[in-house]
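Listing S7. Sequence submitted for prediction.
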Amino acid sequence: MTSRRGEALALAGLLAAAGVTHLTRPGFYDPIVPRRLPGPARFWTYASGVAELAVATAVAVPRTRRAGGLAAAALFVAVLPANVRMAADWRHRGPTKRAIGYGRLPLQAPLIWWALRVAERPAEKG
């Protein structure tokens, strides 16, 4: 496995794991759905899980990797309001939860960078 392919597959794995957890543990994600979104939070939790799985698939397939990488970057930008809400909601919780809430925020930048890097890489032949 080339490092380019490995980098893309690692991103696809991260997205797939996130998608699966949104679908199997929605109760964790529902409270951080921004209130300004219309409809029930559960809809947005499931929709984001499906989106993560679709983007993971696009990133994993060389033919669709560029589009998948760009979609992953957009997805990481789109979920930033949920991470901001989590940090705000968890600011008075215990040190571990506070660290998780605040720790997710600076992780968005490297995730966006990673997705754009995967999008820039040419698909492998064969």
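Caption to Listing S7: primary sequence and predicted structure tokens for the chain studied. The chain is about 75% helix and 0% strand. The two ends are 12 Å apart (CA to CA).
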